[in-house]
Amino acid sequence: MAISTSLRSNLIKPLTALAASSSTHRLRRPFSSSSADDTTVLTIETSLPFIGHKCEPPSRNVETTPRELLGFFRDMALMRRMEIASDSLYKAKLIRGFCHLYDGQEAVAVGMEAAITRKDCIITAYRDHCIYLGRGGTLFECFSELMGRRTGCSKGKGGSMHFYKKENGFYGGHGIVGAQIPLGCGLAFAQKYSKDETVTFAMYGDGAANQGQLFEALNMAALWDLPAILVCENNHYGMGTAEWRAAKNPAYYKRGDYVPGLKVDGMDALAVKQACRFAKEHALKNGPIILEMDTYRYHGHSMSDPGSTYRTRDEISGVRQERDPVERIRKLILSHELSTESELKSIEKELRGQVDDAIAKAKESSMPDPSELFTNVYVKGYGIEVGGADRKEVRGVLP
């Protein structure tokens, strides 16, 4: 079914206004991945306005396509399923050590990828599974790494907190709170030096927002006009501490003082996309900018945290009902008849199968060889000796 020019130019209202919108705003056709209309340009208003600090916020009207919206749904549903499966694997003791899950925050990872390229860099903290997946990683690599198998993205030696994919511009996965921010500014320095017109997104949580190294790195980035975008994923709890108990000024997008900032609804993938596109353009011309993504995690800080001692279950369920990023996209797709409920359920069933298959394959992978303990530690070819505890007995010479 052809779509008229007038319909294409109509502004699709946010979900809260759907009940009042007229029928002329609806796309009366089913979604088909083979349809030529998949690339029809739609203009959708973000759920909330952007709030700027020392900058003029971008427009709330975001251009998208039916294909992109369905892609958002598929990607976020896959991330959600992967994290739920990781919860089960951890409880079954197939994943050991620290494990921080991302369910609830998927719109940040997906919206950011929609605005940039793989030549742009991303570096983040330890809640990194979905960021890695968004950068082009596979489920098999994710689950292999989580279970410490040699087929993992870090050869089974990094675990949950240290995913890495340099060839796709993903520089980790870092376990020290805030330590990735100076590294991200270093990546931006290299980009500016190379003059390749790319940027770095250095991501951190509200729990790291008071770290001194953040402000030191930001100061240098501002002095040198580096293409660095600092992304504060504000899920409102640094471990078990509410933001208002840890920060005198929890308006993190303003914390750069002389550096512009933007507050974004981090549960709205389209708002994240618009903000990241705006930030990239700004950073290439003017230097660093801070994005505060107002988001929420459903799990506790890590798998050792039940997540219900410092917040109520009603609070968690309320966010699920009102702001869940996957459900927002689902409702948007259904409300504008881009797909049917049964088609979306079929997609979710397919994704569950993909996750189950990846887990089964990862379980069959072997553990790293013990010799891997000595790789990626020292530069090769220098004859480094490994001794005993008293250093009197040489146990071996590293290659």
Topology:
Layout: H1 5-9, E1 11-12, E2 42-45, E3 51-53, E4 61-64, H2 66-91, H3 106-115, E5 121-123, H4 129-134, H5 139-146, H6 180-194, E6 200-205, H7 212-223, E7 228-234, E8 237-238, E9 241-242, H8 243-246, E10 261-265, H9 269-286, E11 289-294, H10 313-323, H11 325-335, H12 341-364, E12 385-387, E13 394-397
Parallel strand pairs: 1-2, 5-6, 6-7, 7-11, 10-11
Antiparallel strand pairs: 2-4, 3-10, 8-9, 12-13
Helix pairs in contact: 2-3, 2-11, 2-12, 3-9, 5-12, 6-7
Strand order of the largest sheet: 3-10-11-7-6-5
Poorly predicted regions: 1-36
Give the percentage of residues in beta strands. Answer: 5-15%
Question: What's the total number of strands?
Answer: 13
Distance between the termini: 65 Å
Kindly provide the radius of gyration, computed on alpha-carbon positions and rounded to a whole number of angstroms.
22 Å
Along the chain, the helix and strand elements come as HEEEEHHEHHHEHEEEHEHEHHHEE
- Mind describing the biggest β-sheet? 6 strands, mixed
Q: Any idea what the shape is?
A: globular
Instruction: Count helical runs.
Output: 12
How much helix, percentage-wise, in residues?
Answer: 25-40%
- Strand-pairing-aware structural class: alpha/beta
Mean pLDDT: 90
